[in-house]
Amino acid sequence: MPKIIAKVEGKGNGIKTVIVNMVEISKSLARPPAYPTKFFGCELGTQTQIDKKNMRFIVNGSHDGEKLQDILDIFIDKFVLCDECDNPETTFVVQPKREKITSICSACGHSSLIDMRHRLSTFILKNPPEGEDATPQKLKKLKKEKGDKNSQQNGETSPTETEESGFDGWSDDLPTASKTNDDDWSTDTSAEAVRERMSQLGVGVKGLTHNQDLEKTLEERFEIFFKFVKDKVKAGNIVNKEIVAEADRLDIKDRAVLALAETLLDKDILTQISKYRVLFLQFLAENQKAQKHFMGAFEMLVGQLHKNELLPKTAKILSVLYNEDFIEEEVLLEWGAKVSKKYVDKKTSEQIHAKAKPFLDWLKTADEESDEDGEDVEVVYTERSEEAVLKEEAKKKEQEQKASEPAAATESDDDIDIDDI
């Protein structure tokens, strides 16, 4: 499970914490992302906002990632782990009419009831998981499978096994070895067989089995990744997990956004940002190096590929990218401070920066206003020791006292009584 990435937005009464990678976390836990988000609200005593359309999961208030991680551990203990074997491979069966939530472990077959006293249980009853795994029929099916498994362990033979093997248990002759048994002693090494076996491997295992590409240059690896993504887009088979795994395998996660931007984004970028947000955030979240590469891809999209359509919308596009957590404020201001000809020619880069100026000015103003809202505390930075600073202050005070003594003497001279002469 990835570590929680929490981003605090807003100020005052409108401050909120956006959990950037909640979708990835929920996938690893096999729970809808709304469940842990709502659990945070229950434990922290605050409201939550769940925007499924834009994949934004928000907890009101300012909360750091470590605090949320500790609360997530409680959620895992209560709503994910099996009571019997502590395995996380559990699924929910929700029965709203009976007000029951059953947790079923795929590893040991144990089923247990979820504590209905927790407020999240009420939320789950009203918002059950989607799919077959959430239905009562799934519970009956698993119970039946568990019963069949127990009967086989007690010495009973499955009817299916007897029919398939052709051995009824009464003959003195051993059953003839089947074709399957022959396969145990030899492996089909034909190209077709290898492709079939590779298709059955998990993403992680694939990366281990054919990672000779790491010996190639960075440019060659980038071309392999670009072709991989392009083929996926052409086939209409964009699977985020596979794309991230391929970038990891080729060790080009920072530059991968250049290929993703060119293949997934075009003149309709304003609608595509939210469509592919989850995929892009797996490369851009807390990765300023990848964000800088993305700004290069942005310049190429706006200044070369779709200049007529996108150049006038530059400020709007940057605003959406900022609000959707693609690019951090620091990276945007650094990009806006310097015109570069790394991705497009200097003239085009100047045009893009000119169009971006209204948004960059707003960003600077908002940052300054945020600083002014803080407490007026004067902070003095110095490399000298505290003792040296105190000595200097004492010396300064002594000089001020000496400077005031002549004035005091003059005042006393003015107060002479003429009768004393």
Characterise this structure.
About 55% of the residues lie in helices and about 10% in strands. α10 packs antiparallel against α11 and α17 (about 315-325) packs across α19 (about 345-370). Among the domains are: about 1-80, Defensin A-like (2-Layer Sandwich), CATH 3.30.30.170; about 85-165, Single Sheet (N-terminal domain of TfIIb), CATH 2.20.25; about 255-370, Serine Threonine Protein Phosphatase 5, Tetratricopeptide repeat, CATH 1.25.40.180. Strands 1-2-4-3 form a four-stranded antiparallel sheet, with helices on one face. A three-stranded antiparallel sheet has the order 5-6-7, with helices on both faces. β6 (about 100-105) and β7 (about 110-115) form a beta hairpin. The longest helix has 29 residues, at about 385-415. It starts with 5 loop residues before the first strand and ends in a 7-residue tail after the last helix. With about 425 residues, it is an alpha+beta fold.
Which descriptors would you attach to this protein?
single chain, 421 residues, alpha+beta, Defensin A-like, N-terminal domain of TfIIb, 7 strands, globular
What is the structure about, briefly put?
Among the domains are: 1-80, Defensin A-like (2-Layer Sandwich); 84-164, N-terminal domain of TfIIb (Single Sheet), CATH 2.20.25; 253-371, Serine Threonine Protein Phosphatase 5, Tetratricopeptide repeat, CATH 1.25.40. It is 57% helix and 8% strand. The protein is built from 20 helices and seven strands.
